[in-house]
Each structure stands twice: as structure tokens, then as C-alpha cells.
Design goal:
By secondary structure, the protein is of the alpha/beta class. It has a single domain, classed as 3-Layer(aba) Sandwich (Rossmann fold), CATH 3.40.50.300. The chain contains 7 helices and 10 strands. It has a 6-stranded mixed sheet, sandwiched between helices. It has a 4-stranded antiparallel sheet with strand order 2-1-4-5, with helices on one face. Helix 5 runs parallel beside helix 6 (187-204). Pfam families: ABC_tran.
Length: 240
């Protein structure tokens, strides 16, 4: 693991999974992805999830973020049991508490960088003025202050991913979930985007849970967990 100190004044887990299970059925064939998986992510903590292709890393991230429903066990986000919430309440909690960054930026092509980052703030019920101020501040923080009015097609790959980072932080989430967020970038740009995420983690105490195949990136986080045979195990520094 890295040498950074454990975040101080933790107020309990931002995300907690208990005895999580997920089974998929295709005809008569049942595939069990997880069985009794437990996980806690504390406020301000950074966690890498690694594992072989097909181990279920993205599935786990979707379950933690309330984008998929487990077949067993429970996920708690900010102390609330996701299965007890209606679809609407789950969506509102997700928009308020969690940010998402994917391998592909998923920016809406018809809107500018500024408008894309404003959207989560507007969906939370804040005014256009507040959303614009927040979005501009975040885009300046990711060094895109000069690209506010550019559409995704007018941005480079690294710029689009930095805009996606800004959008993920739009509502000051407790935790950001990243699914190979630097996977489509060249090494130099990937390093820049990753360092940016760590800087924002330190500045805002936003927890990070990143799925990655990059062990070098994983070593920079507080904990590295390997998804193996349906469960999670914490890796030592020598194993990463």
C-alpha cells in the first residue's frame, strides 16, 4: 500500500456491503458471481479493486452504486439500506451521495463541458446560478476553465475524462466509484487524471473506490482488494 496516512476523523462507512451475493441465470444455467461478500469503505478512504477479467469487478461496483440489485445480502450507502428504498429515492440518494466515472466518459455530446457538469447539480434541485458556479469551479480545478463552452467532440480524450471527473464531483459526493477510469487513456494522460483524482480526494475527503487492472495505480491507494472466487481479500504490499 502507499505511505499516505489513514484519513482522520472517520465518521463510519460511506458504503457497506454485508453478505453480498449475485447470481445470474441464463436458461437453466446459474452463474454465481459473489457469495457472502463483505466490504466497508470509510470516509476519505481510497480503495482499489483488482482481479481477473470476468471476476465480477464491474458487477460489484454496480451493486455498491445501486445500479444493480443483489440476489442476497444488503448494501448500505450513507447508512441507508438500498433495498428498502423506492427506485426514485434510490436515484436521489445516488445522485446526492455517489459519483461515477467510467472507462468511457459518457458526456452528453450535445451539451458543453459546463452544461454536462451542471446537470447533476440541477437534478439535485439547485438553481441554475448555483449549478453554473459549482460546475465552473470544478472545471477550473481540473484545468478546463478555458474549455467551459466546448462540446465533448471538441475536447481531447484526457480533457473529456477530466470533465467526467468534475461531473462526478458536482454534488460533493461522499464516495466516487470508478470503473477503469483511466483505461482508455495513454500512460501520461492516465497518470495526470489519476493524480487529479487523488488531489481531489485529499482536498474534499471524498472516498474513492476504483476498479483497475493497473497494479501500479492500485499501489497508490490506501487498500488493495482482490476479487477472487466470489469474495474479497486484502492484498499485502508484497502481493500488489
Amino acid at each position: 500500500m502507499n505511505e499516505r496516512s489513514t484519513p482522520q476523523a472517520l465518521t463510519g462507512p460511506v458504503i457497506r456491503a454485508e453478505c453480498l451475493g449475485r447470481t445470474y441465470s441464463e436458461g437453466k444455467l446459474l452463474t454465481q458471481v459473489f457469495d457472502g461478500l463483505d466490504l466497508q469503505v470509510m470516509r476519505g478512504e481510497t480503495v482499489a479493486i483488482v482481479g481477473a477479467s470476468g471476476a465480477g469487478k464491474s458487477t460489484l461496483l454496480h451493486l455498491l452504486g445501486g445500479l444493480d440489485v443483489p440476489t442476497a445480502g444488503e448494501v448500505y450507502v450513507a447508512g441507508q439500506r438500498m433495498s428498502a428504498l423506492s427506485d426514485g429515492d434510490r436515484g436521489r440518494l445516488r445522485n446526492k451521495t455517489l459519483g461515477f466515472i467510467y472507462q468511457f466518459h459518457h458526456l452528453l455530446p450535445e451539451f458543453t463541458a459546463l452544461e454536462n457538469v451542471m446537470m447533476p447539480v440541477l437534478l439535485s434541485g439547485q438553481s441554475v446560478c448555483s449549478a453554473q458556479m459549482r460546475a465552473q469551479m470544478l472545471l477550473e480545478a481540473v484545468e478546463l476553465g478555458h474549455r467551459l463552452n466546448h462540446k465533448p467532440s471538441e475536447l481531447s480524450g484526457g480533457e473529456r475524462q477530466r470533465a467526467a471527473v468534475a461531473r462526478a464531483l458536482a454534488n460533493s459526493p461522499d464516495c466516487v466509484l470508478g470503473d477503469e477510469p483511466t483505461g482508455n487513456l495513454d500512460n501520461r494522460t492516465a497518470s495526470t487524471v489519476f493524480e487529479l483524482m487523488l488531489e481531489l480526494n485529499r482536498a474534499q475527503r471524498t472516498s474513492l473506490v476504483l476498479v483497475t487492472h493497473d497494479r501500479g495505480l492500485a499501489r497508490c491507494l490506501d487498500r488493495v482488494l482482490e476479487l477472487y472466487q466470489g469474495g474479497l481479500r486484502e492484498l499485502t504490499s508484497a502481493e500488489v
